[in-house]
């Protein structure tokens, strides 16, 4: 019977660790990881397009191509 309580505690600790992780990354978060900024429509002049932030939004990075 004691082993059931121990297994319950271990399961609880594992689930607490998993709850803090996000498995589904949003497009806005992916843009931020590229050090980009989301703009509605096309990118303004000093920025260039590197991806999408969702519907009609562009992920833009400042500067030239590297």
Automatic annotation (TrEMBL):
Protein name: Avian beta-defensin 101-1
GO cellular component: extracellular space
GO molecular function: CCR6 chemokine receptor binding; chemoattractant activity
Record organism: Coturnix japonica (Japanese quail)
Subcellular location: Secreted
Gene3D superfamilies referenced in this protein's UniProt entry, alphabetically: Antimicrobial Peptide, Beta-defensin 2, Chain A
Alphabetical UniProt keywords: Antibiotic, Antimicrobial, Defensin, Disulfide bond, Secreted, Signal
Secretion signal, residue range per the UniProt entry: 1-20
Gene Ontology biological-process annotations: cell chemotaxis; defense response to bacterium
SUPFAM superfamilies the UniProt entry points to: Defensin-like (SSF57392)
UniProt similarity note: Belongs to the beta-defensin family.
Gene this chain is encoded by: AvBD101c
Domain Beta-defensin-like, first and last residues per copy: 30-60
